[in-house]
Specification:
By secondary structure, the chain is α+β, with helices and mostly antiparallel strands. Among the domains are: 251 residues, FAD/NAD(P)-binding domain (3-Layer(bba) Sandwich), CATH 3.50.50.60; 149 residues, no CATH class. Strands 5-4-14-15-16-13-17 form a seven-stranded mixed sheet. Helix 3 packs parallel to helix 10. The longest helix has 27 residues. The radius of gyration is 24 Å and the shape is globular. The protein starts with a helix and ends in a 12-residue tail after the last helix. The N terminus and C terminus are likely disordered.
Length: 583
């Protein structure tokens, strides 16, 4: 299954450009070339019927991927109900989504105009170390590394010699984000590497950008649903009333809907949100809670009219009991307060959100309770949990949609055509666990490395860290050395920018940097910075680029709000409100 393997390897690469290698963009065609046209069979434990329980982003992403890869090989059914609300918040992504879209042959312009999306180059962290502080976590690589010394080590040496600059001055994405600029100079395949650590040094005149998207999660699910149409997907409207299991082995046999329909299947994908109707309520998989490391457990979200041109970065603004997100789309702002209910009430969070976002409301605020952690098994028997049914790491680093895409791609790689393999399921679960723990540790770092005085932040500063994170911080603090594991999402650049931004000042740095004369060090720094400044100066504003490249029709938003109004009429509540995320 070469096509699937290529897809997973590409998506699992560290956060950055995420381009599909040339000649590898046709996953389904490659897959067919290698495995041929499999004959479907219901006997001997073979998997023929796949049932996706739930829609939303997770359900429709899974449906789109499976129908694209296996549309002649599987009978795929998706069950969802208009009466069940989705979270409806996920608006910010990381660059791996571009890899996933290319594997599914999704046209970028069509996609962005359909979801009224904007571009994202970075995350702006504000007030995290202390009120008034700010740093940028960019998606792109910084400077040019050598095989033995990373660029930030030369930058640290320049600071020792009294040269004043910021590390972000040597990153194209940071420089462009701070000036609200964006452009795609190279419209062909992006050859930028995720990390230059083990590659030949790239040209200092690199002008392509590593970017992701901001978009409306509801429009995204609708866009993916349209892509599934015509590929053999069967959608059934209805609420799940019962999960029918084999009395001997506990495997799920069918979903029974409230109207009496029975949807039988061989493999079930649980996309029912944190309720996890199949994986938890039926199979009792168990949940590993991470609240002791990630204390925020609620959010209040809001959508307002745009108060200016969209900025090409997500804003993450710390406050006394959590943090505040602001995301610019083409037609509106998505914003919300993430908080710990031990330190702030729902009413206090809502009042704070409204006070800090005075623009005209497009939807009233809604409360989203959540629980950070993971199912103890993402794949249990013949059920695979995706999205919130599988895990949730709070949205600070915009990884929620990525983790769903990664899990779906991993499913394609491990797909059990010949029946459930216990060994394959164990490997799937182990890879899922390691991926989640890596992302969790990176998010915990932001909470832990702070100098704020409020009770929540003092608690985070003094907490016992998860395994491995304390070592990373201490090594960087003592030597300036950072690293990136082979299968880890976050790059070397991400760790360095965030640890420096969160106030970790290395006591030492690599001694080889001192071998450069002042003139040679200046030549190195200028050779990186001047082409970046020239590239940014040549870029249009993000608004001008969107207008010429992917401007969305007004009908896109009308469609979204029509769906929201319909949901409220049917259920009496705003989508995303209620017990859907409670355990």
């Amino acid at each position: 299954m070469q096509g699937a393997a290529i897809g997973y390897a590409a998506l699992a690469a560290p956060q950055g450009g995420g381009a599909v290698p040339e000649g590898r963009g046709h996953g389904r065609d490659t897959l067919r070339k290698n495995v041929g046209r499999m004959k479907l069979a219901t006997g001997n434990g073979r998997i023929r019927k796949v049932v996706i329980a739930g829609g939303g982003t997770a359900g429709w992403v899974a449906a789109c991927a499976l129908t694209h890869q296996f549309r002649d090989m599987l009978d795929i059914t998706l069950v969802e109900s208009e009466q069940v609300g989705t979270v409806g918040v996920g608006e910010s992504t990381i660059p791996t989504i571009r890899t996933f879209h290319k594997l599914l042959q999704i046209d970028e312009r069509e996609f962005l105009s359909s979801v009224a999306g904007s571009f994202k180059l970075a995350i702006s962290f504000e007030n995290w170390t202390r009120p008034g502080a700010r740093y940028i976590h960019p998606f792109g690589t910084t400077g040019v590394n050598t095989w033995s010394v990373d660029f930030h080590q030369f930058w640290l040496e320049s600071r020792r010699r009294g040269i004043k600059s910021e590390l972000g001055d040597y990153c194209l994405e940071t420089a462009a984000a701070l000036k609200d600029r964006f452009a795609l100079f190279n419209t062909g395949q992006n050859t930028q590497q995720w990390s230059m650590r083990w590659t030949k040094a790239a040209s200092m005149e690199r002008r392509d950008v590593s970017y992701a998207y901001h978009f409306d999660a509801g429009l995204y699910a609708a866009f993916m649903r349209v892509k599934c149409e015509g590929r053999g997907l069967k959608r059934i409207e209805g609420k799940i009333a019962q999960v029918r299991q084999d009395p001997e082995n506990g495997f799920v046999q069918a979903l029974v809907l409230e109207d009496g329909q029975v949807i039988e299947g061989d493999l079930f994908l649980d996309c029912t949100g944190a309720r996890a109707l199949l994986s938890e309520q039926a199979l009792k998989t168990g949940f590993e809670d991470w609240n002791h490391w990630l204390p925020s457990n609620r959010a209040v979200a809001l959508q307002t009219e745009a108060d200016g041109p969209p900025v090409p970065y997500t804003r993450a603004i710390a406050h006394e009991a959590g943090w505040h997100w602001k995301i610019s789309l083409q037609h509106r702002i998505g914003c919300g307060i993430v908080f710990s209910d031990a330190h702030m009430s729902d009413d206090e969070a809502t009042a704070k959100l409204l006070a800090e976002n005075p623009a005209k409301r497009l939807r009233e605020p809604w409360i989203i309770p959540f629980r950070t952690g993971r199912r103890r098994k993402a794949w249990n028997k013949n059920v695979i949990a995706l999205g919130l049914a599988s895990s949730f790491i709070e949205p600070l680093e915009s990884t929620s949609i990525h983790l769903t895409l990664s899990a779906v791609t991993r499913l394609v790689q491990f797909f059990p055509f010949e029946g459930i393999s216990e060994a394959a399921a164990e490997r799937y679960n182990e890879v899922s666990r390691m991926e989640l723990e890596h992302v969790r540790n990176f998010v915990v770092l932001h909470y832990h490395l702070n100098q704020r005085d409020e009770p929540l932040w003092k608690q985070c500063r003094e907490m016992e860290l998860p395994p491995g994170l304390g070592e990373r911080i201490q090594v960087f603090r003592e030597t300036g050395y950072a690293w990136q594991g082979e299968d880890e999402l976050f790059r070397l650049d991400s760790w360095t920018h965030c640890m420096l931004g969160q106030g970790v000042v290395p006591q030492n740095h690599h001694p080889l940097t001192r071998a450069l004369s002042d003139a040679d060090l200046k030549t190195l720094l200028d050779g990186v910075r001047k082409p970046i400044d020239a590239a940014v100066a040549a870029m249009p504003s993000q608004q001008d680029f969107i207008d010429s490249y992917c401007r969305a029709p007004d009908s896109a938003w009308e469609k979204m709000y029509a769906c929201a109004r319909q949901h409220e009429q049917v259920t009496g509540k705003v989508a995303g409100v209620g017990g859907d995320l409670k355990q």
